[in-house]
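Task: sequence design from structure.
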């Protein structure tokens, strides 16, 4: 299972709330359609992606939203990678298919299906330049693509490209202050993460956010925003905290401290967990090496290196085999 990244945690904390995702929807969907969507009754559905299809580059959200007496699904992907994904339209078709498959399993007698509307929120360093329609990805001539339109699987997605949206425009979007803050911070996330002068970059971003931060009353949301900034900038948390305290209004200082404390606590917890796991693995390696040395002396250096690089699953499997094995090849054999 992929370990959640700061981007994943931030996206989950902010955009899993449909009211916080609403400014994205209203920015890209046709105005007449957006007016009919009842976001006050929007519901976040369980993730479609419980395997490794979505790695650290993306976070996914599937919302069920009432629309004129019916319902639609808003399938939203937050794209974390610095460059755009040329196969995004193909991936979205697969994900939309999963949403419909789940609906059919839950409603086996259904005669009609909810529309699945795909939306990509992108905050890469450069403008999105990949196709937004699946038909453009097929290895077809223009003439054949035109002839087959409507007969081959196709999908177009709405794109909210933050790299091409000015901060002022994001600040003016309708919606909660926390949502607008999150969008501005996401727009600058790549620059914050890769800055040559991270101190100056963090200070500049914090000062530009000062007005919005003054308006924010959701203190839990504020802490999420501040923690994300501290987590992705290439600075020690204490140094980042000092910069934010100097740059931001005095009333935000307590939230900056809270964000830093949460970051410290998570680091300590993850360090302890990783330490316990590594200690367990070292014990398994030592036991396996003792068994191998006793049964197959002298043990080749290559075998010792292999044990040293093995995962917990491999160590367990090799330990189970060693007593009955007649050779090292049998111990290290891969499953058929």
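Answer:
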């Amino acid at each position: 299972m992929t370990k959640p990244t700061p981007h994943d945690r931030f996206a989950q904390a902010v955009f899993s709330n449909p009211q916080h995702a609403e400014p994205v929807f209203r920015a890209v969907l046709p105005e007449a359609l957006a007016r009919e969507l009842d976001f006050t009754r929007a519901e976040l559905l369980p993730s479609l992606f419980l395997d490794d299809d979505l790695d650290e580059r993306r976070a996914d959200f599937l919302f069920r939203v009432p629309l004129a007496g019916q319902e639609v699904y808003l399938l939203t992907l937050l794209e974390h990678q610095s460059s755009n994904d040329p196969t995004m339209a193909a991936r979205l078709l697969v994900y939309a298919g999963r949403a419909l498959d789940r609906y059919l399993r839950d409603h086996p007698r259904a005669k009609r299906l909810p529309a699945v509307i795909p939306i990509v929120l992108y905050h890469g360093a450069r403008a999105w330049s990949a196709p937004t329609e699946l038909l453009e990805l097929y290895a077809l001539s223009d003439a054949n693509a035109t002839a087959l339109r409507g007969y081959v699987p196709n999908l177009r997605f709405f794109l909210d490209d933050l790299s091409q949206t000015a901060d002022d425009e994001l600040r003016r979007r309708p919606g909660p202050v926390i949502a607008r803050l999150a969008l501005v911070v996401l727009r600058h996330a790549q620059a914050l993460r890769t800055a040559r002068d991270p101190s100056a970059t963090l200070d500049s971003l914090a000062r530009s956010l000062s007005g919005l931060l003054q308006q924010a009353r959701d203190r839990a949301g504020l802490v999420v925003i501040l923690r994300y900034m501290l987590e992705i900038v290439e600075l020690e948390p204490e140094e980042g905290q000092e910069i934010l305290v100097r740059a931001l209004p005095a009333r935000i200082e307590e939230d900056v401290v809270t964000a830093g404390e949460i970051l410290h606590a998570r680091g300590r917890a993850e360090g302890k967990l990783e330490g316990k796991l590594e200690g367990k693995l070292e014990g398994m390696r030592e036991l396996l090496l003792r068994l191998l040395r006793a049964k197959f002396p002298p043990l080749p250096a290559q075998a010792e290196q292999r044990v040293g690089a093995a995962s917990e699953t491999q160590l367990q499997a090799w330990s189970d085999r060693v007593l009955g094995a007649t050779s090292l090849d049998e111990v290290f054999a891969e499953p058929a």
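The chain is about 55% helix and 10% strand.
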